[in-house]
Design a protein that fits this description.
It comes from Castellaniella daejeonensis. The chain has 227 residues and is of the alpha+beta class. The chain is built from 8 helices and 8 strands; from the N terminus they run H-H-H-H-E-H-H-E-H-E-E-E-E-E-E-H. The longest helix is centred in the N-terminal third of the chain and has 22 residues.
């Protein structure tokens, strides 16, 4: 076969093909995180809309994410769980937001320095997604928590290393991450993530039916998240 001198058009076509190949390999070898954002954009938004103190709190969160990015997955869980449990003071939505039930964005929670159980879980969930933990491994889990003689509605983050595996529980009430069988004080009711709602013994349904979830994502997009 005779040698052909490549034309400029042929070179451009070859480069386009190589770019496509590189992108395909990148997707195959290392999937992109399920939530993305520009750190500088988030910090700037927090300062402008929530004040200087909020900006510093967000910068501390971003620094933790940078530190955790190269760690093994179990260490990511530990760092994220510890950060959020220390960053917020537990409270009720009616006291924090003047509403009976409000799901705050991570920036809003950091700006207040306070949150209820859902807000801890939201912060942990989106932190771990940003760090590359697969979405199917994480679920918001509604439970009944036995505290003394009281049974209260509560939410924790469940981490499922395999689809049918027993989850690890990331909780705002207890700092230590434990497998579910070590938490007899928690009785699961149902769970959900971006992929659906899971009810024991029932079929998975769409998460779009949870209005507060849709509202949360809309407010996060306005702040600069891309969930």
């Amino acid at each position: 076969m005779p040698y052909c001198q490549p034309t400029a058009a042929r070179v451009r076509a070859l480069l386009r093909g190589l770019t496509t190949l590189v992108l395909c390999l990148a997707l195959a070898w290392g999937p992109a995180p399920a939530v993305t954002f520009e750190p500088g954009v988030l910090a700037s938004y927090a300062r402008q809309h929530y004040g200087a103190k909020a900006g510093r709190a967000v910068e501390s969160w971003l620094a933790m994410l940078t530190q955790a990015s190269g760690l093994e997955e179990q260490e990511k869980l530990r760092m994220v769980n510890g950060f959020w449990n220390n960053a917020l003071i537990g409270g009720e939505d009616i006291s924090i937001w003047g509403q009976v039930d409000y799901w705050a964005t991570p920036l809003q929670s950091l700006a207040k320095g306070a949150g209820d159980c859902e807000d801890y879980v939201i912060g942990k969930y989106f932190s771990l997604l940003y760090l590359g933990v697969a979405p199917e491994k994480l679920r918001f889990v509604y439970v009944r928590a036995q505290i003394g003689s009281q049974s209260i509605a509560h939410m924790v983050l469940g981490y499922y290393p395999q689809p049918q595996a027993e989850p690890l529980v990331l909780d705002s009430l207890i700092d230590r991450i434990q497998p579910a069988h070590n938490r007899p004080d928690l009785t699961p009711v149902f769970s959900f993530n971006a992929q659906g709602v899971y009810i024991p013994g029932g079929k998975r349904s769409s998460v779009d039916g949870i209005g507060r979830w849709r509202d949360l994502l809309a407010r996060m997009r306005a702040e600069g998240f891309q969930p």
